[in-house]
């Protein structure tokens, strides 16, 4: 495994440093084979956008990708993040899924917003669940080392044609698998994502149209508009925390390992860029202006609830939120409409950094026996069933007449479905290639795919795009503090110059060495 | 180290002294059954024979202490040794289990201590900790004394008992409960905000998320929770003041305030000195839960104290070695503070925490 | 370190008034009024917030929506929030967990502490001094630090087990010293005559010492129970499974973080039960055992006991 070893200075920790070369990947990655059950989308993919499905497929016409339960009745503990309210253990949805897969899942869901705190504690212990989900934004600190040392190398079961035992896994796009190679081995079961859509700026289309507003188109206009529409007295605020949107608007580089860009022949880190400070400054203005919902200032409650209740008119979140909100509101508030507005740049066109093929993975505990690992892969195979299959319908909607009913030719979630199926869990174990298929909310499918199509021309690949980079241990905690500091700076609790001091300190404490290390990585790959 | 201050206790530590004229001398049977006990002379004199005798006599007592000793050894003494990782680059992923991981982790000497000195967040945490401690010293500390004087002057017993019951109550609440009570009153959706909104006196009132106000907020919380309970020690001291002193002072024409100044406060002096020593010794420990729970609301910058810093670096972010180093430094400085405060107390003629040798 | 405990015999009558000594001047009207006002403010500062919490938790959706949140004067009474919370689900589960931790922990702590206090109550028993020092020293350095303790729990494999909450906080040296001081204070005559009758130490402890110590036992048991009931941090770092969390942690999630309790999303989301009623109801559940028990035990520390405590 010709990983970069030259720069490591014998520090502790598992896993090779550097990243797998294109050559290595050839022997590691699973073979791609399109699913037999795949069906043609109503809205075809364009330029990398997700295929969209708007027509409902009657249950009788659904394909079958897992004809019989493949599990052996084994019990698996699984830790996944969960946004929303966790359903009771032993609920009808989880039980039905267990029976269909042939296993018993023991979910240990954690609040998605504080997932990182628990994740560290769990991985450092010796009581690691059988399946552990790790989102890319929690890869800070020593988590990459933990992944390399605690989780199984799935290459033995999935590399090359071996994956063909699991047809739904074989149909996962190669780009997603490529981003699932950690420390030189295929360890992650990917949840593939669209190239853009990690941060989408949503707005209340119904409220906007009613008042004749149109979404803002530049940073200053956004602030002015936000001030106009905020009315604390009526409990209406313009937005939630827009920090992540601000990063996109100002073209700030993404997170590790994509946080370096080559500027005039020198690597520059996201924290060192003017764009980063400008993005914080702009967000800070929003907080200053009092247009951010006070609960968001206080980091309390759920921004989605405030958005649907009309207390805040704009917020940003991932693309997964869209359907859940629209579906949830269909019954309660038929006037509810939301949409995404187009990102604008700070001056001119925006820059949307392309995301890797997968940004959320589930890992399998390496202490499991090979048979148990195969059984775990069967769970993943079930969860990765593509659109148009019985398995996918069940994973996404639960049991017919219990969690959803068919009304006017589309499926509609029941209250039980909202409670048990909407807070997603199985989707984190593994998912098929990105698609947008919600016949119950066809308008939303069109809106999302259109947004992707409008935004994709502005998408760029970051310098270290596509693969994981394992940094040496000694740099592991360099950037830990930035997120908390960012949150303090935008709220006005600390100043921009505090952030500049922190960046200077980052350089001194290893940031410059980290830059050299990445430079060497590039050099050694170029000369290889 | 002194034993408890036990008024009217017939026994004094350091046993066997002339101060214990045991009534059991009058009971000849005592010798037969129990052998020479507290007052017996064969103290470590007779070599192994006497030792064996004492073992036979006392082994049930030793057995009784063993569960507690065992718990302390496991949960208080053994972990001290674990602090050696402060001189390592310890990674829990370097091996299976603690010992293997430790064996595989590199030694780095005092590197973490150096990092600590250069870390602005560390100094922020130190600053916050000291500021919070000082505020408590200034604003919390006098409250129980004043309340105790007030309660003590109530003659009506029923009123006294009820007042005490209410005042003690918040001490038994958990921090989570105390903070949630504060939130319902002072939070963005709390009572005050609600009243202001209803009356159109402006909106957006929220003391719970105001970083500038936080140091006062936590001081108020401490007062609310513990000031009532704090009076108990002063009440005890007050109940031991010789009433005749008051009477003769009153006869000499000293008014109420002069009596408080010349009799009551001097009587409270040892207790106040003791509590001050403890407070100073605990200067670097302002509590954990109170800050952890309110961390997200006011931001890390305003709320980070040394203990949460150690938690954040070590447990949330996995820098076990670094956090252990910070813990060691904190422990050493705390010890130094107690000893120093005690010295001052001795110099002022007070007893302090441990006895002057 | 001195335990600063003070054993006083506060055997005052609880009925009637103490009489004012003849030498003391009668209080002025202003003085009396000022005293009354200050006392009233102090008591209101404690009771009023608690009243609001209780009143809101018992109010129906209509009252709450009329007042805009918290309720000062209850109108429509509804037990829905409690019914929903206790009908199973996360809060009921957490409550049960907390009760178990508190009961088992307190029994365990009391057993070990009483044994140790008695074992250390004879001044010149064998190894008395080193054993006592082993206890006292821990008060001096205040524990080994968070990180080593945390790694110890991990190494012992106690993560996600309630032993990780109970064992590290089972021993409170201060409490043991209070018990010990009390035991040392018990008259020796009874004990000696029991010894003549051939009673062993365990029997003496059980049959003579403990029955004489009911009050101090109640007080110390309360201290331990309150500690277990109110603990948040241990579960926060050692319990990573959501459905194993005790009540304080669930309370924090629901009120401070504003989350909805597991399995209650529908009732709150549709507004059948206002979320403020649920929040305050959980607070009341966390408060009740303490509010009920502590004044009851307070009689004991009035009646003759221990008082004291710098950080009980």
Architecture blueprint of SSEs:
The complex is a heterotrimer of chains A (528), B (357) and C (312).
Chain A: H1 22-28, E1 52-53, E2 75-82, H2 92-101, E3 104-111, H3 115-124, E4 131-135, H4 143-150, H5 155-158, H6 167-170, H7 174-178, E5 181-182, E6 185-186, E7 188-192, E8 200-204, H8 205-211, H9 219-229, E9 237-239, H10 243-249, E10 260-263, E11 266-269, H11 274-288, H12 294-297, H13 303-308, E12 312-317, H14 320-332, E13 338-340, E14 352-353, E15 358-364, H15 370-383, H16 390-397, E16 404-407, E17 410-413, H17 415-420, H18 426-429, E18 436-437, H19 442-455, E19 459-460, H20 482-490, H21 496-527
Parallel strand pairs in A: 1-18, 2-3, 2-4, 9-12, 14-19
Antiparallel strand pairs in A: 4-15, 5-6, 7-15, 8-12, 8-13, 10-11, 16-17
Chain B: H1 29-34, H2 47-82, E1 88-89, H3 97-104, E2 106-107, H4 111-117, H5 120-140, H6 142-152, H7 157-168, H8 175-186, H9 191-198, H10 214-239, H11 243-251, H12 256-281, H13 289-298, H14 300-303, H15 306-316, H16 320-347
Antiparallel strand pairs in B: 1-2
Helix pairs in contact in B: 4-16, 5-10, 6-10, 7-10, 10-12, 12-16, 15-16
Chain C: E1 5-7, H1 29-57, H2 61-67, H3 80-86, H4 90-119, H5 128-141, H6 146-155, H7 163-166, H8 173-184, H9 188-196, H10 201-212, H11 214-230, H12 233-238, H13 247-256, H14 265-269, H15 275-303, E2 306-308
Antiparallel strand pairs in C: 1-2
Helix pairs in contact in C: 1-15, 4-8, 4-11, 4-13, 8-11, 9-10, 11-15, 13-15
């Amino acid at each position: 495994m010709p990983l970069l070893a030259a720069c490591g200075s014998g520090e502790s920790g598992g896993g090779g440093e550097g990243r797998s070369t294109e050559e290595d990947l050839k022997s590691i990655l699973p073979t791609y084979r399109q699913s037999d059950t795949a069906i043609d989308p109503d809205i075809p993919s364009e330029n990398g956008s997700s295929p969209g499905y708007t027509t409902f497929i009657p249950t009788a016409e659904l394909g079958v990708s897992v004809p019989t339960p493949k599990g052996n009745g084994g019990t698996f503990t699984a830790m996944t993040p969960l946004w929303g309210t966790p359903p009771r253990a032993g609920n009808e949805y989880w039980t039905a899924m267990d029976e269909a897969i042939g296993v018993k899942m023991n979910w240990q869901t954690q609040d998605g917003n504080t997932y990182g705190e628990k994740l560290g504690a769990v991985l450092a212990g010796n009581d690691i669940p059988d399946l552990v989900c790790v989102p890319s934004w929690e890869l800070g600190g020593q988590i990459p080392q933990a992944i390399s040392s605690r989780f199984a190398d799935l290459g033995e079961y999935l590399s090359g044609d071996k994956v063909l035992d699991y047809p739904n896994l074989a149909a996962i796009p190669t780009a997603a698998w490529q981003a699932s190679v950690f420390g030189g081995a295929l360890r992650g079961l990917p949840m593939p994502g669209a190239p853009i859509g990690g941060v989408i700026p949503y707005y209340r289309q119904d409220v906007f149209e009613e008042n004749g507003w149109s979404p803002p188109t530049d940073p200053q206009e956004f602030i002015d508009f936000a001030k106009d529409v905020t009315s604390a007295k009526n409990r209406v605020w313009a937005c939630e925390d827009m920090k992540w949107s601000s990063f996109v608007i100002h073209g700030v580089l993404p997170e590790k390992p994509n946080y370096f860009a080559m500027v005039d022949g020198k690597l520059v880190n996201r924290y060192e860029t003017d764009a980063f400070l400008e993005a914080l400054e702009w967000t800070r203005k929003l907080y200053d202006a009092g247009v951010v919902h006070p609960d968001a200032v206080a980091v309390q409650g759920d921004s989605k609830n405030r958005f649907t209740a009309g207390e805040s008119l704009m917020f940003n979140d991932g693309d997964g939120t869209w359907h859940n909100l629209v579906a949830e509101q269909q019954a309660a508030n038929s006037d509810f409409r939301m949409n995404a507005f187009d990102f604008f740049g700070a001056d001119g066109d925006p820059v949307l950094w392309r995301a890797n093929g997968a940004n959320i993975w589930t890992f399998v505990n390496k202490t499991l026996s090979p048979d148990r690992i195969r059984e775990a892969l069967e769970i993943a195979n079930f969860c990765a069933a593509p659109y148009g299959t019985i398995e996918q319908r069940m994973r996404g909607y639960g049991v017919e007449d219990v969690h959803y009913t068919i009304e006017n030719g589309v499926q509609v979630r029941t209250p039980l479905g909202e409670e048990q199926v909407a807070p997603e869990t199985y989707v984190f174990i593994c998912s098929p290639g990105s698609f947008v298929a919600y016949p119950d909310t066809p308008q939303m499918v069109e809106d999302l795919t259109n947004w992707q199509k409008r935004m994709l021309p502005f998408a760029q690949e970051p310098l270290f795009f596509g693969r994981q980079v394992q940094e040496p241990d000694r740099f592991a905690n360099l950037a830990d503090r930035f997120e908390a500091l960012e949150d303090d700076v935008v709220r006005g609790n600390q100043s921009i110059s505090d952030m500049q001091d922190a960046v200077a300190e980052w350089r001194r404490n290893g940031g410059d060495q980290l830059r050299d290390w990445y430079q060497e990585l590039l050099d050694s790959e170029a000369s290889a | 180290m002194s034993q408890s201050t036990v008024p009217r206790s017939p026994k004094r530590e350091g046993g066997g002294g002339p101060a214990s004229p045991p009534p059991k001398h009058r009971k000849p049977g005592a010798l037969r059954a129990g052998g020479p006990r507290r007052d017996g002379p064969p103290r470590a004199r007779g070599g192994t024979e006497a030792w064996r005798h004492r073992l036979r006599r006392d082994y049930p007592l030793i057995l009784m202490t063993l569960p507690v000793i065992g718990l302390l050894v496991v949960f208080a003494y053994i972990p001290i040794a674990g602090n050696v990782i402060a001189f390592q680059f310890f990674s829990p992923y370097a091996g299976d289990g603690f010992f293997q991981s430790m064996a595989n982790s590199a030694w780095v000497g005092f590197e973490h201590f150096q990092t600590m000195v250069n870390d602005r967040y560390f100094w922020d945490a130190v600053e916050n900790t000291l500021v919070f401690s000082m505020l408590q010293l200034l604003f919390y500390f006098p409250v129980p004394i004043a309340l105790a004087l007030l309660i003590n002057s109530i003659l009506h017993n029923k009123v006294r008992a009820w007042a005490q019951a209410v005042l003690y109550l918040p001490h038994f609440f958990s921090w989570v409960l105390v903070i949630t009570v504060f939130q319902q009153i002072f939070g963005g959706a709390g009572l005050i905000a609600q009243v202001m909104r209803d009356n159109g006196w402006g909106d957006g009132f929220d003391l719970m998320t105001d970083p500038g106000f936080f140091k006062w907020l936590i001081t108020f919380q401490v007062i609310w929770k513990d000031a009532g309970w704090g009076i108990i020690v002063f009440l005890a001291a007050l109940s031991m003041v010789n009433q005749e002193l008051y009477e003769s002072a009153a006869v000499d024409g000293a008014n109420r305030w002069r009596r408080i100044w010349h009799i009551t406060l001097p009587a409270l002096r040892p207790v106040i000195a003791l509590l001050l020593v403890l407070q100073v010794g605990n200067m670097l420990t302002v509590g954990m839960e109170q800050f952890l729970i309110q961390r997200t609301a006011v931001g890390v910058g305003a709320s980070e104290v040394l203990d949460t810093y150690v938690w954040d670096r070590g447990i949330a972010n996995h820098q076990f070695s670094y956090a252990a180093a910070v813990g060691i430094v904190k422990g050493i400085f705390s010890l130094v503070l107690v000893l120093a405060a005690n010295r001052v107390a001795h110099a002022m003629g007070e007893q302090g925490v441990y006895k002057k040798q | 370190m001195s335990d600063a405990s003070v054993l006083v015999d506060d055997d005052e009558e609880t009925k009637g008034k103490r009489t004012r000594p003849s030498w003391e001047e009668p209080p002025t009207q202003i003085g009396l009024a000022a005293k009354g006002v200050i006392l009233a403010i102090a008591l209101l500062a404690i009771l009023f917030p608690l009243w609001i919490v209780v009143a809101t938790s018992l109010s129906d959706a209509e009252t709450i929506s009329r007042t805009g949140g918290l309720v000062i004067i209850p109108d429509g009474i509804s037990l829905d929030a409690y019914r929903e919370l206790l009908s199973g689900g996360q809060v009921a589960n957490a409550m049960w967990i907390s009760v178990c931790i508190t009961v088992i922990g307190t029994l365990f702590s009391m057993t070990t502490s009483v044994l140790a206090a008695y074992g250390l109550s004879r001044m010149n028993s064998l190894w008395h001094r080193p054993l006592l020092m082993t206890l006292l020293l821990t008060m001096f350095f205040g524990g080994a630090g968070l990180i080593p303790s945390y790694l110890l729990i991990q190494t012992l494999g106690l993560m996600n087990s309630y032993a990780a909450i109970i064992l590290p906080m089972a021993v409170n040296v201060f409490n043991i010293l209070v018990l010990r001081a009390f035991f040392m204070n018990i008259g020796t005559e009874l004990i000696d005559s029991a010894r003549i009758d051939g009673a062993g130490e365990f029997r003496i402890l059980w049959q003579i010492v403990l029955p004489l110590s009911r009050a101090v036992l109640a007080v110390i048991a309360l201290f331990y129970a309150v500690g277990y009931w109110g603990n948040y941090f241990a579960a926060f770092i050692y319990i990573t499974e959501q459905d194993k969390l005790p009540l304080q942690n669930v309370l924090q999630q629901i009120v401070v973080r504003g989350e909805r309790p597991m399995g209650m999303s529908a009732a709150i989301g549709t507004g059948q039960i206002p979320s403020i009623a649920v929040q305050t109801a959980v607070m009341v559940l966390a408060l009740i055992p303490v509010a009920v028990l502590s004044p009851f035990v307070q009689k004991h520390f009035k009646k003759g006991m221990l008082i004291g405590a710098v950080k009980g």
